[in-house]
């Protein structure tokens, strides 16, 4: 990471925030919610790749980051498997 | 061959100060950052809690000696088994092998001078102690009557017992677990000696590493769940109150997401210990090292997707139940592979029946019984009848006491010469090991029969026809107690009067046995260079 | 005078190993934090699916413009933190101090605005803490399933306060860490060490940022 990439990352983050806020004007709820979450995911990815140096990090650190997401997904999905099929 | 490299000009015959001789002041113990001393701090603490939890168990078994609930009221009985569960699970079993044997041996087995974060290691013990204090406060305040499982909405809205104090105690001790896990993971990844590749690590290291991963991934979910209980009881803001649209089952999902992997935290290190002992005392390399490693990692992984098997009759969806049941059958497979591999290791071995080996062989019987009965419980149709009966109680005690505690005792006896530089009486150790084996079977086997016959768990009275089985079970507890008290006596005795041990009294393989007994402060004078795999027995 | 060469701590063989261990240690810690908040988000996900209509309407009662500003502030603090790291990496004392101060200022401003938000919610009687009066006006029919709408809305606000409260606590800890780093940077005793520690602190700060993005999305954006 250098100054340039940090600043570009920040601009990208603000742009994604703006996009997510603008999407609030959409009528279709499913589309609106999808945009919100995609923007959130993209912002998170930008922060992790640039500000948290994952772009230049070794495989182990990336694995740790991915595991976190995987484990939350596990918790939510399997719990939903119960909630949604009652 | 493993070479311990000495720097040029150094007198290789001069013995460096061992870690015990460097002072016995309070300061040198309470402010130590030496992983070996921290292991002892933990050992003392968990032993105290073990006897505390055992006292509760003794009272339970005394009450159950007679069919009528005559020793204690139902209320008091609720608090007693809750105390027993909380203390035994969080203050004994979870830390036991990792925080004592793991802390002592992991750095040595990978060839390091200490853990990656020695100060965090000490902090984890202080946090453990703080959590312990809160739990004692909870006991003094009358205890908790929710069971160790804290089910909502009873625990959040209706219980008049010391739920908050107990929840805070467990909340705090969780951080101790997390720090230990973090230290193990980082140490194993970054501090292995040159030549110590992943494929050359002893299975004890693999087991503790997998355990550490579980600690790190599962414990925080318990932390936030207990936080939610605490917030609901103090500030009145919660998400489990049905009147607000909250879901009590949500609590159970969050709770068991941690508490099922937690049982693998308890058993995996035990399996690691068994591997070390079985290899040494049959003079054979462990059969199927790769399979053992894969099984360890598979147990850790699959352990995260089976939690719903605690909730088959809770109102959980049938389809989720089927899914969890299937995965539970699956998680039994790697455990079975390990048990078969240990047995195969014995084949054509030169077996000696020293105390550690008796413990390890006991583990094989006890874990097999406990594990198989787990498979019965995994079947939905059977679980409908067996859930909340003594069958379940027997199942998990066979594994936790018959498995984890037995292995802990075995490990203690195996590495005692290394930890202390002393040998203990072979005769007494054999007696204690056999007492444990007999006591465990006598205590818990009748409970399978009781559960199958329909006796519910957590009840302090029962119909007369169950009497004989209950009496047998309580008698077993007496024998079991012998198995715990004897080592306390002869091991302590050995500290002063035991014959001095050399570096390797069992002629075992492994880096830890290459050092003097007790080891010097930083384990190795120079970082060892590893040139061969583990278990190079012939 | 700042020392030039760092010697590794006694348990490490060289600085490379120590650096590696330090970064891995922080990442593993962040993994635990992910699961901590993850449990909360799991709770939110389940309850949101069970009570979609009420939760969506309740979302409208929160102050989105203020939260959006807060989000922008936090994202900017991520930039200033990154710049502080770069400055420390280049061994520039003044720049490091400047960017650290900016990060602390932005973080403090975030907490201030959050506190103001909570206060305004308290004034509008939307804080169901400690049996404070909770008055929720709704345009939905009175009962959603088995519970009255106001009760389910209370559930939403419970989650909201727990999530933002837990996040604010982490922010406070983060500010404490940054204040300590500010002091060390002011002394500038061991620049090598400051560089390493700032990098590790930066990971924590950025992570808190990521958590906020999801809290913001879940609680403020999913409107009816």
From TrEMBL, chain A:
The places in or outside the cell where this protein is found are: Cell membrane
Q: Which domain of life is it from?
A: Bacteria
* Keywords, in A-Z order: Cell membrane, Membrane, Transmembrane, Transmembrane helix
The name of this protein is Cytochrome C oxidase subunit IV family protein
Q: What is its main location?
A: membrane
Which residue ranges does UniProt annotate as crossing the membrane?
35-56, 63-81
* Pfam families cross-referenced by the UniProt entry: COX4_pro
**Membrane topology designation:** Multi-pass membrane protein
TrEMBL record, chain B:
Primary subcellular site in the record, as a coarse category: membrane
Topology in membrane: Multi-pass membrane protein
Localisation per UniProt entry: Membrane
InterPro entries from the UniProt entry: Cyt_c_oxase-like_su1_dom, Cyt_c_oxase-like_su1_sf, Cyt_C_Oxase_1, Cyt_c_Oxase_su1_BS
Q: Which residues form a coiled coil?
A: none
The record places domain Cytochrome oxidase subunit I profile at: 29-531
**UniProt KW keywords:** Electron transport, Heme, Iron, Membrane, Metal-binding, Respiratory chain, Transmembrane, Transmembrane helix, Transport
Q: Which residues cross the membrane?
A: 39-60, 80-105, 125-144, 164-186, 206-230, 250-274, 286-306, 318-337, 358-382, 394-416, 428-448, 468-491
> PROSITE patterns under this entry?
COX1, COX1_CUB
SUPFAM superfamilies reported in the protein's UniProt record = Cytochrome c oxidase subunit I-like
Is Metal-binding set as a keyword in this record? yes
Similarity remark: Belongs to the heme-copper respiratory oxidase family.
This one is known as: Cbb3-type cytochrome c oxidase subunit I
TrEMBL record, chain C:
Q: What is its main location?
A: membrane
Keyword annotations for this protein, in alphabetical order, are:
Membrane, Transmembrane, Transmembrane helix
* Tree of life domain: Bacteria
Can you say where in the cell this protein is located? Answer: Cell membrane; Membrane
The way this protein sits in the membrane is described as: Multi-pass membrane protein
Transmembrane stretches in the record are 21-47, 67-87, 99-119, 159-183, 203-222
Q: Does the keyword Nucleotide-binding apply?
A: no
Entry keyword annotation includes Transport:
no
**What are the Heme-copper oxidase subunit III family profile domain coordinates in residue numbering?**
24-224
**Record's SUPFAM superfamilies?**
Cytochrome c oxidase subunit III-like
A Pfam family for this UniProt protein? COX3
* Secretion signal, residue range per the UniProt entry: none
Protein name as catalogued: Cytochrome c oxidase subunit 3
């Amino acid at each position: 990471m250098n100054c340039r990439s940090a600043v570009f990352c920040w601009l990208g983050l603000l742009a994604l925030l703006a996009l997510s806020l603008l999407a609030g004007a959409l009528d279709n709820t499913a589309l609106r919610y999808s945009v919100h979450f995609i923007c959130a995911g993209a912002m998170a990815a930008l922060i992790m790749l640039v500000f948290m140096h994952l772009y230049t990090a070794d495989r182990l650190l990336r694995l740790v980051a991915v595991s976190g997401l995987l484990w939350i997904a596990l918790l939510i999905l399997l719990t939903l498997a119960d909630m949604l099929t009652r | 061959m493993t070479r311990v490299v000495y720097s040029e000009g150094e007198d290789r015959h001069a013995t460096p100060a061992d870690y015990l001789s460097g002072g016995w002041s309070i300061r040198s113990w309470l402010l130590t950052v030496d992983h070996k001393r921290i292991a002892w701090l933990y050992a003392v603490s968990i032993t105290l809690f073990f006897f505390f939890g055992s006292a509760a168990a003794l009272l339970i078994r005394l009450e159950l000696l007679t069919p009528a609930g005559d020793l204690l009221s139902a209320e008091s009985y609720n608090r007693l088994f809750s105390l027993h569960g909380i203390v035994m699970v969080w203050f004994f079993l979870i830390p036991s092998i990792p925080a004592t044997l793991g802390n002592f041996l992991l750095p040595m087995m990978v060839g390091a001078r200490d853990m990656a974060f020695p100060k965090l290691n000490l902090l984890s013990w202080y946090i453990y102690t703080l959590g312990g204090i809160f739990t004692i406060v909870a006991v003094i305040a009358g205890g908790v009557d929710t069971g160790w499982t804290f089910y909502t909405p009873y625990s959040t809205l209706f219980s008049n017992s010391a739920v908050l104090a107990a929840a805070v105690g467990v909340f705090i001790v969780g951080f101790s677990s997390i720090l230990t896990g973090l230290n193990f993971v980082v140490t194993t990844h970054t501090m292995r000696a040159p030549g110590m590749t992943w494929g050359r690590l002893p299975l004890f290291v693999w087991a503790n590493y997998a355990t550490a991963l579980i600690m790190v991934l599962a414990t925080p979910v318990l932390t936030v769940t207990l936080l939610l209980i605490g917030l609901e009881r103090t500030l009145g803001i919660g998400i489990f109150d049905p009147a607000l649209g909250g879901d009590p089952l949500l609590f159970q999902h969050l709770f068991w997401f941690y508490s099922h992997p937690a049982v693998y935290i308890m058993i995996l290190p035990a399996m690691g210990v068994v591997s070390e002992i079985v290899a040494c005392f049959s003079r054979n390399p462990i059969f199927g090292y790769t399979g053992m490693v894969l099984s360890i990692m598979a147990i850790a992984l699959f352990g995260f997707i089976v939690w719903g098997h605690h909730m088959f009759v809770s109102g959980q969806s049938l389809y989720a139940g089927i899914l969890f049941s299937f995965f539970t059958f699956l998680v039994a497979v790697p455990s079975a592979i390990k048990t078969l591999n240990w047995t195969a290791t014995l084949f054509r071995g030169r077996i000696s029946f020293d105390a550690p080996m008796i413990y390890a062989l006991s583990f094989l019987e006890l874990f097999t019984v406990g594990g198989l009965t787990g498979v019965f419980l995994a079947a939905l149709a059977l679980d409908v009848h067996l859930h909340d009966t003594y069958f379940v109680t027997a199942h998990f005690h066979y594994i936790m006491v018959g498995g984890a505690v037995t292995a802990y005792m075995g490990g203690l006896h195996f590495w005692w010469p290394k930890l202390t530089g002393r040998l203990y009486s072979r005769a007494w150790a054999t007696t204690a090991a056999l007492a444990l084996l007999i006591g465990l079977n006598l205590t818990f086997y009748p409970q399978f029969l009781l559960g199958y016959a329909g006796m519910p768990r957590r009840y302090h009275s029962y119909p007369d026809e169950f009497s004989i089985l209950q009496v047998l079970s309580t008698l077993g507890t007496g024998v079991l107690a012998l198995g715990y008290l004897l080592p306390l006596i002869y091991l302590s005795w050995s500290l002063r009067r035991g014959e001095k041990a050399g570096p390797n009294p069992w002629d075992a393989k492994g880096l830890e046995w290459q050092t003097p007994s007790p080891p010097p402060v930083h384990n190795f004078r120079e970082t060892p260079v590893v040139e061969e795999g583990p278990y190079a027995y012939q | 005078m700042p020392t030039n060469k760092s010697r590794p701590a006694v348990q490490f063989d060289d600085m490379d190993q120590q650096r590696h261990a330090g970064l891995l240690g922080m990442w593993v810690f962040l993994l635990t934090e992910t699961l901590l908040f993850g449990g909360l988000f799991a709770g939110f996900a389940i309850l949101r699916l069970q009570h979609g209509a009420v939760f969506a309407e309740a979302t409208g009662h929160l102050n989105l413009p203020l939260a959006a500003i807060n989000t922008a502030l936090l994202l900017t603090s991520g930039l200033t933190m990154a710049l502080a790291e770069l400055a420390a990496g280049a061994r520039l004392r003044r720049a490091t101090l400047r960017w650290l101060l900016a990060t602390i200022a932005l973080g403090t401003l975030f907490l201030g605005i959050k506190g103001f938000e909570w206060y305004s919610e308290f004034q509008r009687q939307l804080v169901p803490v400690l049996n404070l009066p909770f008055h929720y006006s709704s345009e939905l029919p009175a009962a959603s399933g088995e519970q009255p709408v106001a009760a389910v809305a209370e559930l939403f606000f419970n989650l909201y306060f727990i999530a933002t409260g837990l996040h604010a606590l982490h922010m406070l800890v983060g500010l404490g860490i940054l204040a300590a780093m500010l002091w060390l940077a002011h002394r500038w005793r061991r620049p090598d060490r400051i560089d390493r520690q700032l990098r590790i602190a930066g990971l924590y700060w950025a992570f808190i940022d990521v958590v906020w993005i999801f809290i913001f999305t879940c609680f403020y954006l999913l409107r009816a």
